[in-house]
Amino acid sequence: MIQATFDFARGQHPVSGRQPEVSVILPVFNGEAHIAEAIDSVLAQSMSDFELLVINDGSTDGTRAIVEAYAKRDARVVLFNMPNRGIVAALNFGLERAGAEFIARMDADDIALPRRFEMQLAILKRDPAVVACGGDLLKFGAVTGSLRFPRNDLMCKTALLFGTCFGHPAVMLRTRTLRDHHLRYDARYEFAEDYHLWSVLARHGKLCNIAQPLVRYRIHDAQIGRALREPQRRAHLAVALLNWSEAGAAIDPERLKAFLWPRLERLPDLFGYTQLFFRVAACAINLHGHRRIDYLRSAFRTFSRNAGRRILTGSST
Known about the structure:
There is one protein chain. The relative contact order is 0.11. By secondary structure, this protein is an alpha/beta fold. It is built from twelve helices and nine strands. Strands 1, 2, 3, 4, 5, 6, 7, 8 and 9 form a nine-stranded mixed sheet that branches. A hairpin with a 3-residue loop joins strand 6 (130-141) and strand 7 (145-147). Residues 23-135 form the Glycosyltransferase 2-like domain. GO terms for molecular function: glycosyltransferase activity. This is Glycosyl transferase family 2. InterPro entries: Glyco_trans_2-like, Glycosyltransf_2, Nucleotide-diphossugar_trans.
């Protein structure tokens, strides 16, 4: 394990002797194809006061050699080599060693836009109540387009009834909140561990997303969401049901599953899906914690996204 670049016990930079502003956590497994692009995008940020913690989760390709070369050229890059234990263990390893006031997530196959850290820091410093700040994603690779996320705290928290309110590789977190409340990624919700963390984090402060893209998000078949779709959906559903329960209302798991991932193979199926929306909306009326209209709006956004996908693209799931 390589950890000589920073003194993690004190969280200090080896040259300046002070704590960096941001710890960037970048887990990687067999990422030789894209890891250099990801690291280059971090090193090219408009703010330079960060540590880049690369957690090599037992890669068997050339990942280690690529990152070691960067670490030799730039003291901000720190490589940890560990046995393969999976994404949750790698992420928690990074959280434990982050020495900065803020923690930024980064994936090994994505590209951070140049002002990402600068913009997120401005929001987190301006409002100490904000515990997590994300932004939109620009898709590229096998699929192009954009992924937009809820903007303000209320929209983020009501969206958690149905799914994540953040693009994981674009999030910046307040370290103290994680430490004060002993928050980590939970392996029981593997493949939706980020969704679960946001759901717990929402109890301790405000969430928000910047209304513009922060990361170019690469789409390819090796991603968890495509390669392991069913396990991911089971974990997602488990978190959503927890959020419904905490908000004070019960919903049938099969009904919620059908609402989140409808089979709309024929146009008449849209009629049945519309009926399902009204049943889910009736359950949402019984929720507490926010205004009923806000829960209904989140339900409608999920409905319109799924129905719109079927109408515009013909996709049935």
